[in-house]
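hiii so um. not sure if this is the right channel but i have a protein structure encoded as C-alpha cells and i wanna go backwards to a sequence. like what aa goes where. can anyone help
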C-alpha cells in the first residue's frame, strides 16, 4: 500500500506560510499558491510536500553576487484627493 501524504488543513497551511486563511481561499480562486486537494466531503487539504515545495520555489535570495540588493528609490505616488 503506498504511503499516504500528510494532509494539512487550511489553518495549518496558513500558519506555515504566515498568511491568513482567507488569503489561501483567494489563492485557490485565482489558481495561485500551493497545490491542494478537495476531499469527497468538500473539505480542502494541502499535502505537506506541496506546501514545502511552494515555500522552496517562493524563496528569493537578495544580496548575492548574481542578484544584488536593489537600491531603494524614494516613494513617489499620487496625492490623495480630499473630500
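sure thing!! here u go:
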Amino acid at each position: 500500500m503506498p504511503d499516504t501524504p500528510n494532509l494539512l488543513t487550511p489553518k495549518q497551511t496558513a500558519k506555515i506560510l504566515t498568511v491568513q486563511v482567507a488569503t489561501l481561499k483567494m489563492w485557490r480562486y485565482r489558481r495561485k499558491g500551493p497545490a491542494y486537494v478537495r476531499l469527497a466531503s468538500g473539505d480542502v487539504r494541502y499535502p505537506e510536500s506541496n506546501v514545502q515545495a511552494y515555500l522552496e520555489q517562493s524563496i528569493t535570495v537578495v544580496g548575492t553576487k548574481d542578484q544584488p540588493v536593489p537600491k531603494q528609490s524614494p516613494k513617489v505616488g499620487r496625492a490623495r484627493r480630499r473630500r
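oh and Residues 48 and 62 are 27 Å apart (CA to CA).
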